[in-house]
Design brief:
Helices cover 34% and strands 21% of the residues. The chain is of the alpha/beta class and 235 residues long. Helix 1 runs parallel beside helix 6 and helix 2 packs across helix 6. The protein is elongated and about 70 Å long.
Amino acid sequence: MSGVIVTGPPKADLEDVDALAGFGVATVSEAMGRTGLLGPDIRPVQQGVRVAGTAVTVLSRPGDNLMLHAAVEQCGAGDLLVVTTTSPCTDGLFGELFATALQRRGVRGVVLTTGIRDTQALRDMGFPAWSRAVSAQGTVKATGGSVNVPVAVGGQVIRPGDVILADDDGVVVVPRERARATVDRAAAREAKEAATRAAFLQGELGLDRYGLRETLARLGVVHRTYEEYEEGVRP
């Protein structure tokens, strides 16, 4: 497998990246029309952490972390490393030593479709990580791959420089050219949710606030007392 290391790709503005970090993954995905999620199987190795960064992408062979070493050189402050492989792999491609090198360069975290190891050490050093598996299985450094090329994860295309936002709910990608617009839409959605939350605290029901009584009626859903229901189903 030959490959390429692309240097100097365009990136989303860090001001927009940091603004997106103020919103949850669910809010941002909803703001983009319920798109961008990388799937429910990529999970955090820590809890209570939200991070956003510009993607540095890695495409590697299964069981081989050579290209992760190459990617470290391409990483800088505000980046977030995204690692996937040419076919499914749960080996522990990433651990504490990689995190140490990346943290020194100002990298904000890592997302892998593979396995990860040294999870306690990662939590202790405060390096956020999301992965598809936790595995102590070691790897080799023997096969070429690519850095900073478009990759596909969970049905989403991630390009270098796109925004990656991750929290306890999962991971979402925001195309770099849509970062500012997504900040604005996410802020509007959050304001709307705040108003709904206040209404619920006052006792309003979702059935009324969202006009769902009409929806139920249109679908033919009816109310029956317990006695009416029992009478209707009794043989």
